[in-house]
Write a structure and sequence with these properties.
Helix content is 39%, strand content 22%. By secondary structure, it is an alpha+beta fold. It has an eight-stranded mixed beta sheet with strand order 3-5-4-12-13-14-11-15, with helices on both faces. The chain has a six-stranded mixed beta sheet with strand order 6-2-1-10-17-16, sandwiched between helices. A four-stranded mixed beta sheet has the order 19-18-20-21, sandwiched between helices. Helix 21 crosses helix 22. It is globular, with a radius of gyration of 29 Å.
Length: 651
Amino acid sequence: MKIVILGGGIAGLAFSIIMKRKGHEVVINERCDSTPTMGNAFMLHGDGMEILSKILDNESLKVPGDLINTFILKRPDDREVKYVKMEPWQCMKRVDLVMSLMNVLGEENMRFRRVFSHFIYENGKATAAVFENGDIEYGDMFVGSDGSNSRVRQLLFGETNFTKIEVKEILGIAHHPELCKKYKGVFTKFQSAHNGISLGFMPFSDTEIIWFNQFDVALVDQPLDHAVEFESFTKKTLASFPPVVNELLSATDFNNSYLWNTKDFDTLPSFHSENIILIGDAAHLAVPFTSAGVTNALYDAALLDVCLDQADNNLDIAFNKFYNKRSSAVTEHLELGRKLKHDFLNPIAIDEDYIELPLIKMSLVEKAPPLEKKDIEIIYFTDPICSTCWTIQPQLRKLRSTYGNTIDFKYVMAGLLPSWNNYNRGGIKSPSDVADHWEMESSKSGMPIDGSVWTNDALASSYSPSVAFKAAQMQDIDKAILLLRRMNELIFLEGNNIARFDVLKKAAYDVGLDAARLLRDLNKNALLLFNQDLQLTKEMRINLLPTFIFKVNNEIKDYLIGAQSYETFEQMIFKLNPSIVKRDLKLSPIEVFNKYPSLTKKEFKFLTNTNEEEADIILKDLLIKGAIKELQTKAGFIWISNKEITPRVRA
């Protein structure tokens, strides 16, 4: 099959490479005199990176750009509003990506100086593309990848009804090695809380940073037609922003900057007509707040290939399948972009706690189903520094794995250590007593514990980490559970003082929470929620941790106090519900790590029903294969999944 590509941008180049590898004849028609390399830099989502790696498919061709994994939103006064771990993104220079694709494709498939004019039809189907210079290219399938102002789209669906341009962007590249090093891996954005003005930036190499100045067009009081005016406007508009902004602007050659008039259009009723199909910005366009453009272009190329294979190259079936799979996702990106634009233009109306990350969400993974009501609720009274609560993690994790579809845990922070003033609980009166107690608990349980924090940097109270858990619950219950686990690891394995705000902030970031919001909530709503937990602890007369209260149909039925065997928990569950179905999951070692991204050896043995020798062999094998990594802590080793930590459902 001969495939005629109209437009040599990212979408056209990527699809051409894929089709050429399948043995199809491909001709790319480009209006420019040579390979188009216009544009500064952009963000590419992890999904797009995966597709790009397969398209390049050459060990000698390194994927360009630099990884971005953190987003920080600040106000112009440098106050931090949002601090979160991002899904994997790559920031790269457009010319680097285009040249990487061209190195794979080769210029023999390119035809330059061809401005598309119209199609020649026969029996209702296109047989050739005609260009303004008189050239004609015959083919079997025609792909419109000619960008946002697509001539192909215009011929298929008439004039495009673009939305009104309300926001513009000035983009530039700063050469600044020091800032690249300081902000490596970070997408930083300063955004006004009063009007539509922002400055965002991120490094894409060891020496260069892409920055963009977004602004409400209603705020512009001068012409913006060339480099001198771009420089004058940005420096005047951003004069009150932090010093780093002026550093970026001063290190920028404005002759290479450009102005982007942001616009979009509603999702088309179809992406094709007979044997002509649109991909990339020609098919769908969202405002740049989502950074969706290049990712969508690559995904279009990969998916269209899949649809053609599934339809055995029946174009009508393949094109309809492509539209059915893509239209809802691109509509979601379109709507998100419009919402982000509205919020940007109306910042005063937006609660800072609910400002969205200005990037597309993961759309290619299956969403978890809503949680169903469980048969049994267990109210778990605990504390981040409770050593017994740590040592019974193997039992609790296996309980969730086996009965997670039937039982639900409600976490209550019981306030184990208000302060050391007149403290006397279980014979513990001072920090040194805790160190001795923890050593005994570790020896008895087989779970590693390091008590050095009580001699090196003793916690004055367990209230701060407890309130942090409640703050995390306000964002996401599953991530709150991950935070509790991370705090446990920090204090019991690594000897860190988890009452310190810097430690809590890093822990919140590590598990995917908005760390800036969590710190804001510590002295506000989260503190109120913690006080409610303390009141419930008092009302239920809880004196020993952990305590487990079992409820059925919201009625208290029984309780367990202190460390318990797994068999005791099982007996309680069957006592409360004799007809309960036990899930015999028999998880493989890698599945155990997928469910629980960090495991001590005791937990691994317990969850996989292996002995010491068997566990050592399996863990070593997973380590060699790169599935896990081994971290040595003050208390011993812990094994971490090499997959990015993501929230898990409570089951």
